[in-house]
Design a protein that fits this description.
The chain is of the alpha/beta class. It has 2 domains: about 140 residues, Response regulator (Rossmann fold), CATH 3.40.50; about 70 residues, Winged helix-like DNA-binding domain superfamily/Winged helix DNA-binding domain (Arc Repressor Mutant, subunit A), CATH 1.10.10.10. The protein contains 10 helices and 6 strands; from the N terminus they run ββαβαβαβαβαααααα. α5 runs antiparallel to α9, α6 crosses α8 and α6 crosses α9.
């Protein structure tokens, strides 16, 4: 199955459409044999201003055909594909189309950073991450970044309630000014809390922070804490 969903409003990436944060509009190809998972990723990408079109393929062979025809800048490859494996497709895409940024998407366990990088992938993301974290990580990749899970579990991370608040807003995709306005704090205070979160999580940017927080269950812990306070 192949599906192409260009934006109905706006122009192509060679037209006069405004670019989001200076990022050139991206064509994204989602390769997953599970239609529900593909639909979920399409839904996550649907409202992203930097996504020009979302293409879908349910097999590796179809993905290669779609990639040759539509020239996506970003390809999300499931590690579990019938016939070909995700890593095989990742390697083939990078060999035939070196300009394409390939992201490995996994459902169980984790993909070691060294393995993903050796295949030519620029990121390895869990399908179980919250939508905001996935979107943030993909935007970071589109901007030229790399996102890989840590190789070993980290010791328990202790964040203050305010740091958890800031982390939750960060993971949802809000900017520092938006987070400051939502929490009624100064931008300087938000920047301080963000730096503390990065240091405690051992990460360097928002995308890594969101992914790491998801791995450690910090986002779920924050939401449960808020629900308990609201109930009380």
């Amino acid at each position: 199955m192949t599906m192409v969903e260009p934006r109905s409003s706006g122009t192509s990436d060679t037209g006069g459409r405004d670019w989001a944060d200076g990022l050139r509009p991206q064509r994204v190809l989602v390769v997953d044999e599970h239609e529900l998972l593909s639909a979920g990723l399409r839904a996550i990408l649907a409202d992203a201003p930097w996504v020009d079109a979302c293409l879908v393929a349910s097999s590796a062979d179809t993905a290669l055909q779609v990639a040759r025809r539509h020239h996506p800048q970003l390809v999300l490859v499931s590690t579990s594909l019938g016939g070909w494996s995700g890593p095989d497709l990742c390697r083939t895409l990078r060999e035939r189309m070196p300009h394409v940024k390939v992201v490995l998407m996994f459902a169980e366990g984790r993909v070691p950073a060294a393995l993903a990088a050796s295949l030519g992938a620029v990121a390895a993301l869990s399908k179980m991450m919250v939508p905001g974290a996935i979107l943030m990580a993909l935007k970071h990749v589109a901007e030229g970044g790399r996102v890989f899970p840590k190789g070993k579990p980290a010791p328990r991370v202790k964040l203050s309630e305010r740091e958890l608040d800031v982390l939750r807003h960060l993971a949802s995709g809000l900017s520092n000014p938006e987070t400051a306005a939502t929490l009624h704090l100064s931008r300087h205070t938000i920047k301080q809390h963000t730096s503390a979160v990065y240091r405690k999580l051992g990460v360097r940017n928002r995308a890594e922070a969101a992914g790491r927080a998801q791995e450690l269950g910090l986002l779920g812990r924050q939401m449960r804490g808020r629900e308990q306070r609201d109930a009380g």
